[in-house]
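The data are quoted verbatim here:
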Amino acid sequence: MTDDGPAKRGYSRVLLKLGGEMFGGGSVGIDPDVVGTVARQIAEIVAGGVEVAIVIGGGNFFRGAELQQRGMERARGDYMAMLGTVMNCLALQDFLEREHGIDTRVMTAITMGQVAEPYIPRRAMRHMEKGRVVIFGAGTGMPYFSTDTTAAQRALEIGCEVVLMAKAVDGVYTADPKTTPDAKLFDSITHREVLERGLKVADATAFSLCMDNHMPILVFNLLEEGNIARAVGGEKIGTLVSTPDAPSA
């Protein structure tokens, strides 16, 4: 399936989803070199006038589901993971402001007034209209919901045109390319196909939410320098996941 619609014209307001594992460079904690590289790519698209919101995971610190497997109560583990996302947000904010002079606001779903603003959708939109980067932390503020789902929900609520899902792989494959060398990369695919095939790109709740509301997801490789700008500019990279509009009667 080919869908050249939104990917061809580029985007003006985007939600960038970043995995926390990347911020750790494969280990626990924060790798300043990785954060600096991501900040540089974000600064490039902000300079081009794109309005940017960001959701960051916390996998480089905690994962609620994994803590549950070790005997911890799931909800408490999820709250710990939410706090990990805020640490990642503050690190990215520091690099964007200190290295690139970009006004940045961290907004969190759990109130922590000394380090971040509370998440208020209209305020987030106003920040973006003023050219500020908005970074959303603490997930949805509720356990049992992933930051992938947070990205979908925030993108819809603040009027983004696309969820840019940055990964350590080139896009959506027929199988895990790390374990299946002959896995094929999709140029485009529908939300429904991703769900029906059980492709492990993001959690099913995020894809269902985007499918029901016709929010496209562009899955691409963050580790290749300049890919965020290519994604925003509408170049054919990664995999575009979309749901075609129903034919008019």
Residues 74-100 form the longest helix (27 residues). The longest strand covers residues 13-18. The two ends are 22 Å apart (CA to CA).
